[in-house]
Amino acid sequence: MSGNKPNPSVSKYDYLFLPIETKNREFYAKLLLSCFAAEGGFTVVLGEQQELRSAIFRFPRGIYIDKSVVKSKSNFFRLLKAMGHKITAWCEEGLIYPNPEIYLSQRISTKSFKLLDAFFAWGNIHAGHIQSKAKGINIPVLPTGNPRIDLLRDPFRKLYFEQATKLKEIYGQFLLINTNFSFYNHVYSPEFRLQRWQKRGRIKRETEIKEYWGKVDFTRRVFESFIEMINAIANQFKETKIIVRPHPSENHEKWRELTKSLPNVSIIYEGSALTWIAAAEAIIHNGCTTGLEAFLMGKPVLA
Fold first, then answer.
1. What kind of fold does domain 158-302 have according to CATH?
2. Residues 6+ apart with CB under 8 A from 213
3. Alpha carbon 226 to its chain's center
4. How far apart are CA 212 and CA 210, in angstroms?
5. What is 8-150's CATH number, 3.40.50.2000, 3.10.105.10, 3.40.50.620, 1.20.120.450?
6. What is the pLDDT of residue 35?
7. CA separation for the pair 37, 40 (Å, rounded)
8. Average pLDDT, the chain
9. CA–CA distance, 25 with 208 (Å, rounded to integer)
10. Beta bridge partners of 69
């Protein structure tokens, strides 16, 4: 691919920068995008988010695709602008969100958004919500989809089913439970997270604080229900292997502590979620993107 002649239309900005925040979630999708971009004539720089941000000054100007447009990105975006880069973004959290108003308030900062040259939406509905928040800001919002979904199409999805063979050899048949309880079971406390969001401007009003604690309480109740469910399944089907894969921002030790008396339950967070989905007999989740991914991969899904 590196031997292809650069496309003249991208020669002015022929570097593409793809930062990765969570490797297990983003790596393969951005690697896929990198391959297509390289075929189109780009030189692609793919790397860990903080390291890439620290090294960006060493490269020629290009196109930077960020994974979010929260308020804390605005200073970095201004720096990129001053260096002559084009700034684009999508939102890794933009596929599933129960309340558009809360999502837009917490994830889409107009201060950062107005510094973009383009925004890539997951689809038409997401694009419409973004445009409603960005009224008066003349920046293209493009419903391009996301390479994380492209990976679920043939022939790319075969990669995960081939890798899943190794997991099946190790664990045999298993039930996969993907969790998404970081509002309550965050690696830091809910109090610490609230303070951090307030400092970043993601939460300002008293109504937003009330909504925050309401979501923490709701998440706690669902979390406790999941613990009850796991105990019931593990005790009723003692020969069934159950693997709980917590969200990367959750406190994984809490899961281990609460399930340590169940010999057929393991807490594992490693590799791509798609590989584990491909290897599982069925998936249980609650409001997690992996539920949709499992459905698109043809797996039985319970929510």
1. Rossmann fold (3.40.50)
2. 190
3. 22
4. 5
5. 3.40.50.2000
6. 96
7. 5
8. 92
9. 28
10. 108
